[in-house]
Each structure stands twice: as structure tokens, then as C-alpha cells.
Amino acid sequence: MPSLLERDAHIDRLDHLLAECLGRAGRAALVDGPLGSGKSELLRVFAARAAERGVLVVGAGCSAQERDLPFGVADRIARSPGWPAGHAARLAELADPAVLADAALTGGTAAADPAGPPPPGLLRACRDLTTALLAASADTPVLLCVEDIGHADEASLHFLRHLVRHLPQSRVLLVLTDGSSPWPARRRLHAELLRHPHVHRLALAPLSRAGALRLVTEGLGEEDARHRGPGLVDVAGGNPLLLHALVEEHLDRTDEPEPRYGPALLSCLHRAGPGVLRVVQAQAVLGEEAPAEDVARLLGERENADAVARIRATLSAAGLLDGEGRLRTEAARTAVLEDLAPHERTELRLRAAQLAHETGSPAAEVARHLVEAGRAPGPWAVAALTEAAEHALLDHRHRTAVACLGLAHKEATEENDRAVLRHRLAQAEWQLNPSAAARHLVPLTAAVRAGRLGLAEALVLVRHLLWHGRGEEALSVLDLLRDRTGPTGPAAPAETGALRDVETWLAYTHPGLARGRRVPALPADLRHTVAPDVDPQLRAAAALAGALTRGRAAEAVDHAQQVLHDAHLHGRTAWAEEAALLALQVLLQAGRADTAAVWSRRLLTAATRREAPTATALYSAAHAEAALRLGEPTTAAEYSRAALTHLSPTAWGIAVGRPLGTLITAESRTGEHRSAAKHLTHAVGEAMFQSLYGLHYLFARGDHYLATRHGHAALADFLSCGELLRTWGLDGAGVVPWRTHAADAWLRLDNRDRAWRLIHEQLSRADADLPHTRGPALRLLAAAGPPGRRGPLLTEAVDLTEASGDRYEQVRVLTDLSRVHQGTGNKRRARLLLRQALHVANMCALKPLAQELLSVSADLGESGPAADDDAREPGGVGALTESERRVASLAVLGYTNREIAGRLYVTASTVEQHLTRVYRKLGVRRRKDLPADLWANLRKTG
Fold it and tell me: Cα–Cα distance between 710 and 688 in angstroms, integer?
């Protein structure tokens, strides 16, 4: 790889000076430039060219670590190999360390006053070395290269100054390199050297953008450089040293070239001296926007703000910082900070936190430094961490809140404060992973018993205990709270109301634990006023749970939708997700699965955007259940799996029964029986079956057994569901339709009498008129009853399943109705219904039902869904307009008016008007009588 770019003029200038030197006109060149600008590389290339011309090349480098070693540079020059034999011994004699050290101190200290006259002994040593070196150059021209003279010891600098003064009429070219540093001493040295007419300055600058791109292209090739070049140049800022490091890294790796960039940057900063590195480290700690005054204050040098500003300007000129004086990448910041020893980094962070606190910076800024330091020294630090955590929770930055609260809890000294901080920490960790929050349950329970937590915090603890299956502990906490807020206790109305709300919620969600406890009366107005000290989301959750407990879901729909609409306003409250989930359950129980699907999708999107894994998992499970109610098992399975990914089954606690049950039912309906059976092997504790989560799981297991033809096992599970609901007093709540499913199991076991009794029980219930419950009941009643009544019952069931939007149930009803028409000899109608059912089954991936339909199709003598032996009515279908044909085609396939409107981008009213005209033109009364050959027009609807 070519090493030099945009340095031709500098090489030419040095060549010219060398030519003068060969003509016995000694010269000196001072090459200065920013860190990493290529001074050493320029010197190396020029030295090689000089050596080819027979010039003796002698080099010496200066180091900050050897600055206190007198004549260190002069000693290396004198002892360099290559001097003519007659002069080598003399130079070695003059460079003897003991002689030089004695000379440096004779008559005074060289470093006492660098600008003043040197001590006599030092002056004699400089004169003798200069004389010997010039004498040696008489035989062989010499290129003397000294790098980084800013780090040279004072004795060697006196020697170099003396040598510079005696260069004319010699054959020596002295090339010195140094950085463009803001330090006053270095600037004085440069000025002193450049006042001589035979000393020339060569200033190096960072590469231009074009030059930097050329360097990258030469290193990587045109193809790679086209894609990667601009990014590498932006990172390196035209600094050749950093560019070389980045190119070499890219040649070794394919991902981001940062591992070599950091060391290259540190190499530049270390060469610049400890003061420069300390400034960059202080800025990295404070942040990129920190003013020079704050950096100086952090370093304990408040009066040196101007020096800090000069250093930053110098580093910006070198490309190490950007135009605003900031480190260019996060990798640079990390490398600079990691170069600090751990205790140094901690102390710097603590000083930065103290500085931010004293200057009135936001709590988040103070907390950032404290968290990085891992310490919070004093009450002011704990207060700042707590405030920062509150702001982080408001912004849904849960990981930041956990970090702040964890440190605040560790450093707090008062037990009451520690208890409150632990509660807040548990809440923040809950949003990330309930398993992580479980470690706080025991100490929080002890804090409640000791009276260190208030009622609101204690009630949240009850919820967490229940989630993790620790029901007895939760009940004991509730009993303790009830005793404290009882008639003899100093209970405020708000406290009594909050406890009553939790009891109401418990009676619905964990009825096995609430058994025997008095369920508070439900207020007439579900949106009754909330006391100021009561969490409004807890009150909403209680109202919705009470409505569900009493089977009044339909009356609570408006309230549920209001809760969902306002959910974004209550993201921080501990009961927000519980209220939203109960609101979605109200919609499902009221037969509004389509609305529940819309709301759950919105909540899921918002939770994903907030990066809240627990809320994301909960709303994924809720959306999966809504999709299952709509007969979309593939969607239900997808979101159930997502719910079990966002939170592991262990983190779900006993609530795992919800997504697990939905997934089992969904996979059973799509024919993935092995996968469903595998999920049933997941270990679930007995505590789950004291909650609705266990009921949901038990019901799903029965569905799986029914789908795999294990009728007796399925029946046992469905009857167990009924027994639990009756025991809990929730049989009237319509939580799961256990009667219809048990009736289905009885029918498969060929016991029509028991099935008939269960169906009639279902149809006599308060919620029997809801489409999503009445439709399946009528289908089973038709199957259990006499053949003559099946047609009317199934016809009504078709309308009900269409209204409920349950495509799974719709396929089953259409299949049974097709068989009825086949039995009565109406094969045309049977084929039409069969095609509708098969289309919906395939669309929803209901593989077992689709296979069943294909067997029915074979009985009808059909070779495929498009076959139709019936002639269309003369001129009937042809009389339809294109729009009417599209609407009618979708209606034949079983789409609801709302779904047709969505597919064709029209209103539902327009769909109704089109269907009315279609019925009139075709001479039919309803969509079930539409001609079967309209199905073929689906292709035209796109």
C-alpha cells in the first residue's frame, strides 16, 4: 500500500535541502503537524531516499518518559552505528553517560532556566559533541533525524540548539519533527529554531477528503472503497494514522472496523502527552457537549479553561476530534475511558457527578455518572438517582430506571427509604422480566409486615405474588391489610376503596383463592368517581372484573373501550396492563372479537415501541386470543409464540396458561397435533388452576383431545371446567363455553341425550343470544336433534357465525348445512355451501376441516371447487354490473358485508345496496341463494 499521499511538495522541499547540504551548506528542517498526520512516515521515506544517495542516516527519537535523563537524545545520536571509523571512537568517548551527566550539572542545573544561558560544563559538552559530529560529516554527508523534540530533555535541546547554530558550511541536514501543540514551552522552542535563516518549516495537515478516499481505495480496492470509503473517512477525519488502522482492520474483518481504531487513537493521544489525554478522558466522561470550563473544573484546573480549549482545537485539527471538538465515534469514547484504571475511572465519574450536582444539571446527568461509577456517596446522590429513575419511567426507559433504582437502593441507609426504592425497582424490573422481579418478593413482604410500605405498594405486591403462584402469601398480605383498614383501624376511605377493588379483581381473575371471601357490590355506574389516592387503573380493573364476574360484559363495553382509549395515559401505573387486558376480555365476552383484535394490536404496537417486554408479551397473548375467536388460528399461533418469546414460560408465572392454551387450540385447529401435544408437556403448577389462566389451559387441552379423537379425555376436561366455574361462582359469567364443547364430545361418543341436555342448558343462559355462543349451540342442537329440524337451525347458525366473525365455526356450520342439503337431494345448494366452507377453511389454514370437506366433496361427485353441473339462470349473472359481480362473488365465499367493504375500499352501506340490486336481478331473497358460479369471479376482485 502506498504510504504517502499529498506529501509530494514536502519530499521535494527536503530533497532540495539535502542537495544544498551536499554542497556544504548545512540546513535544518522543522516538520510539524497534528498528531498522526504522517510526520514519522514522511521522515522514513525521505531517509530511505537519502540513504540511496550515499548519505549517512542517523536517527533518534524523544520520549516523554526519558525527559529527565540528561543528554538522552544526544547520547543516542553519538552512539548510532555508521559513523566513520576515525570519528566513532571520539563520539563514543564524548557520549559517555558519566561524562555527559557531569557536564550537564557542572556550574548549575540545565533545567533551571531553559531560556537562559547554559552552565559552562553543559556548554563545553555541547560544543565538543557538535565539533565531533561536524568533523565526521566532512567525510560522509549526514542526515540527522530527531523525532518528537517536544519530549527531549533540556540538555539534549541545548545540544540541538548549539548544533543548529553551527550547521552552515557543514554537510549535515538536521530534520526535526514535532507536533503542533498549544503548550507555551513548545511554541517557544519552535520560535527559537525558526529564527535562524537556514532552518525551514514544513507544516503537515490532515489529508483532504479526496486524499483520504484515495488512500482507502488503494488499500481496499475500488469496489470495497465505494461502499465503505466515505464512512471510514468520516470516522478518521483525514488523519492518516487512523485511516491506516481502519483500512487494516477492514482487511482482517468484515464488520465495523473499530477494534484497531481505538488503539490507534490512544497511540496518538499518548504521544501528545498526559495532559492531552487527561483532557480527552475528562470530556469523554462529561459528554460530548461539555464546555471547556467544565472539563477544566473536572480536572481540578478551573483556571486552565483556555488551555483545554487550545488542546481541543489542536486535536480537532488533527482529525482526532470533529469540528465541534467531540470524539467521532462511540468506539473512540470507549477506548479513551477504558484506558483509565478502574479506580481512576470511578473517581473521575464521582467528581463529574458532584460537579453536575453543584451546577444544577438535570438529575439524569448526575445519575448517569453515578451509575457508571457504581457508587452514590451521600443522600444527594440517592435523591438524584431516584429522580432520574422517575423521569426514565415516564419516558419508558425501563433499563435506565432499573440501573438508577438498583444503585439508589444499595446506597440508601434508611430502612423505609430502602423498602420504597425496592418496590419501585421491582416494578421497573417487572416491565423487563417478571422473573428478575421475583427476588424482591420476600423482602417486600417483610417490609409490608413491618409497616414500611403503604397500601398501594402492598397491593401491587399482592399481584406479583399471585403471578408467581404464591397465593397463600398473597392472601396473608391481604388479610393483614384488611385488619389494618378494618373498622377499628385508622382507615381512610381511599384505602378502603383500594382494598375493595383488589378483592373484586381477585374474585374474577383468581377465583380459587377468593372462594369464601365477600365480593364487594358493583357500583351502578362503572365509571364512578375515583378517590384522589386510588390508582384509577386499579379502579377500572375492579369495575371491569366485577362486570365480567356477574356476566354483564355487554353493559361494560363502552367503559372497556374508554379504558383502552386512555391506556396510553396510564403507562406508568402498576395496574395499567391489568385494566387493559380486562377491557379486552370484556369485548371478547360481549362478542366483539373484531374490536378486541383492533385494540390489542394497537396496544401491542405501543408496547413494542416502548421496548417493554412484559407488556409486549401480554398484548401479544391478548391479540392471539382475539384472533382465535375470529377463527384465525395461524395468526393466533404466531402471536402466542411471540408472547412466549418476549417472556420465557418461567417468566410468565402462572399466567403462562393464557398464551399456552391459545397456542394449543390454534395448533389443534391447523392440524399441528404433535406440536400441540408437546406444549401440553410443559410443567405447570397446581397454583395455576386456582386462576382463570388454569381454566383457559384446561379448556384448550380439552379442545386438543377432541381434535385428536380422544373423546373421553376431552369430555373430562370440559366437565372439569364446568365444575370449577360452578365452584367459583362464575358459571354465569360465560368465561368459557364448556357446555357446548362438552356436548360436542358427547355427540362424538354417540350420546345424543346428554349432548341435547347440555345444549339446552346453554341456550337457556343469560348470554344465549350472543352470536358467538348461540351459533355453535344451534349447530350442535341440529346435530343432536331430529333431521327435519336441522336445516332451519343451521340456517340461523350461519347468520350468527357470520355476525360473530368466527370463521372456524362458520366452516363447521356450512359443512353441516351442506350435508343437510345433500341429504334432501339439493346437490346444487350442497355444492355451493361446500365451496364456501372449503374456501374459508383454506384461507384460515384449517387443515383438518379442509380434509373433511374434501371427503364430503368426493361424496358429492365434485372434482374440485370450481365444478358446477347447474346451468346459470338465463341472463341472470350476465345482467350484473362489474361492481355488483365483485360484491356478489365475495358474498358467495362467505365474507361479511364489513369484510367486503374493506377489500373493495367502499362503505358497508354501499355493499348492502349492491347486494340488494343483485338479489333483485337474480331473483333471490338472500345471499345463501346466490348462484354457485359466482365463486369464479373471485379472481376478478384481485
Answer: 24
Helix axes 613-629 and 415-432, enclosed angle (nearest 10): 40
Are 393 and 401 in contact by the 8 Å Cβ rule? The answer is yes
Q: Which residues contact 778 (CB under 8 A, 6 or more apart)?
A: 763, 793, 794, 796, 797, 800
The answer to which of 29-38, 179-188, 359-368, 413-422 has the lowest mean pLDDT is 179-188
End-to-end CA distance of the chain: 59
Q: Which residues 6+ apart lie within 8 Å of 186 measured at CB? A: 150, 178, 179
* C-beta separation of 471 from 513 below 8 A: yes
pLDDT the model gives residue 520: 52
Sequence letter at residue 892: V
251-289 residue pLDDT tens: 765 455 455 677 777 877 777 766 788 888 888 888 877
Integer Cα distance of 184 and 13 in angstroms: 28
Sheet of 56-61: strands edge to edge? Answer: 56-61, 142-147, 172-179, 27-33, 199-203
Spatial neighbors of 206 by CB under 8 A, at least 6 apart, are 34, 37, 237, 238, 239, 240, 317, 318, 319
Mean pLDDT of the chain: 85
Residue 487's pLDDT band (cuts 50, 70, 90): low
Q: Give the span between the Cα atoms of 423 and 799, in whole angstroms.
A: 52
- Percent of the chain residues topping a pLDDT of 90: 47
Cell digits for 794? Answer: 343451521
Instruction: Give the span between the Cα atoms of 40 and 31, in whole angstroms.
Output: 10
CB distance 30 to 194 below 8 Å = yes
Q: Measured between alpha carbons, how far is 690 from 696 in angstroms, rounded to an integer?
A: 11
- Alpha-carbon distance 870 to 534, whole Å? 68
Q: Of 789, 851, 796, 858, which is closest to residue 824 (Cα–Cα)?
A: 789
Half-sphere exposure of 208 (CA within 13 A, CB side): 5
Contact 386, 416 (CB under 8 A): no
With vertex at residue 693, the alpha carbon angle to CA 692 and CA 699, rounded to the nearest 5 degrees, is: 85
Residue that is written with C-alpha cell 365483485 in the block? 886
